[in-house]
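Problem 12. The chain below contains 128 residues. Write out its predicted structure in token notation.
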Amino acid sequence: MLELVNKSDKDVKIKVGGTTTVISLELKGKGAVSVPLKGRATNKLAIAPKIVTLAAGKSASVPITSLACGYKNSTDAAYWTETGEYTLSASYKTWIAPAPKDAKDGGDGLGAVTLFSAPIKLTVEAKK
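Solution.
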């Protein structure tokens, strides 16, 4: 689960979910492999994101159900190929309001931003 937290002292609006917000994942570790899925066809229909108002200090969650990511979760994938220690980081391309000064205009006062997660540590173990 990717958790978006409003760390400001004001309410913000943010687009969450849908197929036009983009999660990117970076997996690091000895057996980490990232693969671009170029040309992979997807029949996933475009779904509009919801605009959510986050009060100061509040959060919204975006589910991550696999290590497939990118546009419509079908342009990139990450894999671990062996047991060991891994680090997983995420970025999330979306729109927020009030828009940052240099953000690309997304209409309705929203501006394009890329949010970054703190990395998390994972341990992959062999099936017993």
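Discussion. The CA atoms of residues 32 and 80 lie 5 Å apart. Students who got a different answer should revisit the alignment rule from Section 12.3.
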